[in-house]
């Protein structure tokens, strides 16, 4: 997708994000005029054990904020959002 003078790339986490995976595949940082947008579909993440593993990734403060959310879907979305941020940053090759 082209926007003005920059390029935007859309990425949906593949099925590996929805199942336990021992390692994360490194990704290249985008060029200065390129934007990558990563997203996850909460409805596709169904494993309770995987969600518990994601809770273990979070800092105590992040975990507290997620668990404080009212409603299961809101908690799940917040957990997946924080996990997406952490795993995406961890995969970047600087």
Q: In words, what does this structure look like?
A:
With 94 residues, this protein is α/β, with parallel strands linked by helices. The chain has one domain (2-93). The protein has helices spanning 15-18, 48-57, 60-68, 72-91; strands spanning 2-3, 6-12, 27-28, 34-39, 92-93. The chain has a 3-stranded mixed sheet. Strand 1 (2-3) and strand 2 form a beta hairpin. The radius of gyration is 15 Å and the shape is elongated.
Distance from N terminus to C terminus (CA atoms, Å) equals: 24 Å
| Strand line-up of the largest beta sheet | 1-2-4
**What is the H/E string?**
EEHEEHHHE
Number of distinct helices: 4
How confident overall, as mean pLDDT? 79
Number of strands: 5
Radius of gyration: 15 Å
Q: Which structural category do the helix and sheet elements fall into?
A: alpha/beta
Strand percent estimate: 15-25%
Oligomer: single chain
How can the largest sheet be summarized?
3 strands, mixed
The number of domains: 1
Helix content: 40-55%
Uncertain residue ranges = none
The coarse silhouette is elongated
Protein name: holo-[acyl-carrier-protein] synthase
EC number: 2.7.8.7
InterPro entries: 4-PPantetheinyl_Trfase_dom_sf, P-Pant_transferase_sf
GO molecular function: holo-[acyl-carrier-protein] synthase activity
């Amino acid at each position: 997708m082209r926007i003005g003078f920059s390029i935007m790339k859309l990425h949906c986490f593949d099925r590996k994000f929805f199942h336990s995976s021992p390692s994360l595949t490194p990704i290249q940082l985008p060029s200065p005029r390129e934007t990558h947008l990563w997203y996850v579909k909460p409805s596709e993440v169904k494993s309770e054990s995987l969600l518990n593993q994601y809770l273990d990734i979070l800092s105590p403060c992040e975990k507290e904020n997620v668990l404080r959310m009212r409603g299961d879907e809101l908690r799940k979305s917040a957990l997946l959002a924080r996990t997406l941020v952490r795993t995406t940053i961890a995969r970047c090759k600087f």
